[in-house]
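Re-running the complex after MR caught last week's input typo. The corrected sequence lines follow. Everything else is unchanged.
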Amino acid sequence: METRDLVIIGGGSAGMAAAVAAYDKGIRDILILERTEFLGGILNQCIHNGFGLTHFKEELTGPEFLTRFVKQVQERGIEYKLHTNVVAVTKDKKVSYVNAKDGAITLQAKAIVMAAGCYERNAGAIGIPGERPAGVITAGQAQLYLNEYGYLVGKKVFILGSGDIGLIMARRMTLEGAKVLGVAELMPYSNGLNRNIQQCLIDFNIPLYLSHTVSKIIGKGKLEAIEISQVDEKFRPIPGTEKRFDVDTLLLSIGLIPNNDLLDKAGVAKSSTRGASVDEHMQSINAPGIFSCGNVLHVHDLVDYVVAEGAVAGEAAASYLQGTLKESEGPCLETVAGEGIGYVVPSRINLANAGENVELKFRVRKPSKNVYVTYSLNGQVLKKTLKPAIIPSEMEIARLPRNLLGEEGGTLTVSLLAKEEN
Amino acid sequence: MDAGGGSLVTILYLFCFEDGILGAFFAFGHLCDDKDILGTNCIPKNRAFPIHVLTFSLLRAYNGAHMKDIIIIGAGAIGAFLARNLSKYELNVLVIEKENDVGDATSMANSAIVHSGYDPVPGTNKARFNVEGNKLFPKICEELDVEFEQCGSLTVATEPKQLEMLKELARRGELNGVPTKLLTPEEVKALEPNITPEVQGALLCPTAGIVNPFTLVAHAFENALDNGVELALGTTVTAIRHENGHYQVQTDKGTFEAKVVINAAGVAADHIASLVEEIDWSIQPRKGEYYVLDHYAPGLVNHVLFPLPSEKGKGILVTMTTAGNYLVGPSSEFVDDKDDHSTDLPTLANVRAQATNMVPKIPFREQIRTFAGLRATPSTHDFIIGPSKSHEDFINVAGIESPGLVSSPAIGEYVVEHLVRPLLDLKPKKSYNPCVKKYVTLSRLSEEQKKEVIAKNPHYGEMICNCEKVSLGEIEDVLSRSLPTLTIKAIKKRTRAGFGKCQGGFCQPKVLFLLAKHLGVSPLEVLYDRSGSEILDKEAK
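Corrected-run output:
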């Protein structure tokens, strides 16, 4: 069996950033396995702009952003295989893949970076009531048809979910001549970035129905109409509030799910994000040498954060290969998503390996104003930060100095605290 | 060319307005002269094979020169095994189906269980054909290359008073000739670690199993077509006339003639039967709604788990599928609309509540789809299998609700050998081959086997569906078979491409463009399923 130092699963932005970072830390034997015909992952179909403001300090389209990373990969001579599908991974780091050229191969990797991205939550996953005609389609799939293949999926469109892809597609399809009749959002607030609400809905006079959901899909072969209803506090449709829209297309922008099957099936522990449970180095807490980054770990709102996380994972994989990342089971802090917090990445902080600062990424459960974010070590508040406004669609990143965290281990809880209570 | 030729062209031309995919071909036919239409030189060389199959069957029927021996109405599981059993003999057989694929109604939306047969009332058609059908499954699935696992079923008692009912079911099993075994709570827990702690006992039926219902029907039809049966998809029967000792079956695509008609029209079987005579029975669709969970991990359940009927409702089962998914359902509710495949929140919530009563920790967050199927429930409470009152050569095979799937091979055999044999000369066909050519299913191969098949055909190494690991080679194989594969859903049912957790989010475009190329049509014309179900609206600016 062939042995490789570092195998990276997924050649999107996270995987490429990890490869470049590992290379720059001295690792030379790197192999990226990418299932599609291009490096760059989902950015290939994101032809709108808004990428790279943090990382490159300029506003790029998806293809422009990815091209810069492809160039970095190619300049370093990092090996990648396209059209290559990883079919299995094991906890002891065997990677099995198939492609037309090599056939079916199992490699022994010394380290793995999992960077397989995410997929869209779809109609089946939420079980929208009604029939199952053609014309109910995820926003990303409509984007794929439009931007990569040049076909529009419908004329009269309604959108469920105010996630960013749905908002981007509302604008894109309007510009292509389709009529977007509205967007329904289950929550009482929008789930997209504020800039997308403004640029994609308000600027085009597309109404946003908050606290609404699609309560019925109508149509046998092809979608004929949908019915939306207002929802109660438990998100149940309220009878009598139905509104009918005659549409041929229902786009779904109802969330993304880490595409973490391979690690899940290998028995690698997973967190509430459905990505792997990782430590501060993005290393799996129960599979040493397996690192995760990008949307396969938790869904990001900006690619700039994805590549930053990819670089952390790539550098950490290099350290692991170079023997500078301790494997010892020293004292650890388990992170806890406390009051008002949806999730925290990483799941664990290995105190022996933590650097000068420990980075925590989290999302709040609902929009709040004038709240403190508190960080508590075994119940004792270490730090609190006042947030004038905080929303679920924007991931928060906090850095805690390592020296605040002590040496004992225990729990590190992130919570929201209303200002008045303080 | 006889005078009929001109009207033939007209009919086909109308057809092209009604059906996108087929239309492209028939429009082409219209441009040719009559002689060419009935010859082969009209069909372009690069034209896909499935269209030929469909076209020739229609052309020959229209031509009128070929009176069919038998027309089967309905291409579900029953139609499939009727066709396959008839294909053993020197007969002209045509199957007419209104959907654009075989097995596209009740046969595709059910629990996919090969029931053991302990449950039906002894002496009924249901009991007889269930038990006989169950015995046929291992051989049939081997011949037809269909996934089948005899995993056994457990009928689970969760209340002490149900133990008596279990014993009653065991007695019924004995009368039906079905082996069963009563298990203690400890034995059940050992077999099913996720069963409710409330479990009081269970009835084990080792002969029960699970099957891939999509390929069961498709491969049975493929086998029948390989052996000479003809199939007209997308064709709706509108009237049936009995004249001069034979039947004229009128459809929206023209009239077909046959000596014998078999009605296997599922939920519409009463409608079809009433085209011939007044009937004193009816079919009322009974809807069942289900959850499908991803194959996230093996071992949630290891058998088909049934509850006992109780005041809380009828049986909601929890089972794995041959693809390693889990099915939870079905509900049971009579509906009026024979085309109502809608799901609703209260019904599914009830399914969920009842299922968790038996298996408390079902991970519903792994849900990847919900669906509804219609059972063809007969007013007579038993399968209706026999000649119509006034015509011995019009045979009804109707009301085939559960346990219909498992019964279908036995029903097919019975109808041919006992009901058709007295009507027609059944001369064995020398060339009959009971087997389909083996399929390559990449996800089931070892690494060495994968290497071998990819070396022979690199397309097996090119993955199209990531969730279910379906390769280009597998899809091309399906498209090359005798059974027409005309829609995205047909590819999904044959190969599982699009069946996984992303529900085709990534692979559907690839499938769509492959199908367009294969059928020689514009991507805009490719259908998801029925006519009018195009995925794409227009080319972008």
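None of the earlier attempt is carried over here. The longest helix of chain B spans residues 125-144. Chain B touches chain A through 59 residues (CB under 8 Å).
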